[in-house]
Amino acid sequence: MPKPSRSRRGATPQTPFRRRGDAPPVHAQLRDGEGHVLAGALLQDGEWTLVLGGTPVATTASAAMAIAMLRHTAAVRAQAGVRTRLAVSKALDAAASAEAEAEGRTLAAHLDWLEAERRVRNAPPPAIN
């Protein structure tokens, strides 16, 4: 009896077949001063996933947004007195830089713009008198 085709098993040339337990590559890690991983970013099926404490907490198609979320996490940890170090892969950096360039910004300026946007979005609504 013939085996099921690759497409019937869920694998196509665009999405390589992954065995159960194969983890997607890590493209960013936020570590504390002792080297413990606090957060990370993975690329899976064309989306960046932010992982905090081993739990996926957000996904985005934007590489720059993934870095911005990790930078925000680092800032929150710094407010709690935890020193952190963020390491980003060349692939994540290149993708984020391309996004920034498409918006007419440097990566640093684009990340600052994303942080400012986050602050506005999360600001409490004005009080109604």
Q: What's this, in brief?
A:
The chain is of the alpha+beta class. The protein has helices at 63-79, 90-102, 107-122, and strands at 26-32, 37-44, 47-52, 55-60, 84-88. It is globular.
Question: What is Rg?
Answer: 18 Å
First-last Cα distance: 76 Å
3D shape: globular
Biggest sheet record = 5 strands, antiparallel
Number of domains: 1
Spatially, the strands of the biggest sheet line up as 4-3-2-1-5
**Number of helices, where a helix is a run of at least 4 consecutive DSSP H or I residues:** 3
Strand composition percent = 15-25%
Strand-pairing-aware structural class? alpha+beta
Number of strands: 5
H/E topology pattern = EEEEHEHH
| Helix content percent band | 25-40%
| Stretches with pLDDT under 50, minimum 5 residues | 4-18
Mean pLDDT: 86
Can you give a write-up of this model?
The chain is an alpha+beta fold and 129 residues long. It has one domain (26-122). Helix content is 36%, strand content 25%. The chain has helices at 63-79, 90-102, 107-122, and strands at 26-32, 37-44, 47-52, 55-60, 84-88. A 5-stranded antiparallel beta sheet has the order 4-3-2-1-5. The radius of gyration is 18 Å and the shape is globular. The chain starts with 25 loop residues before the first strand and ends in a 7-residue tail after the last helix. The model is unreliable at 4-18 (pLDDT under 50).
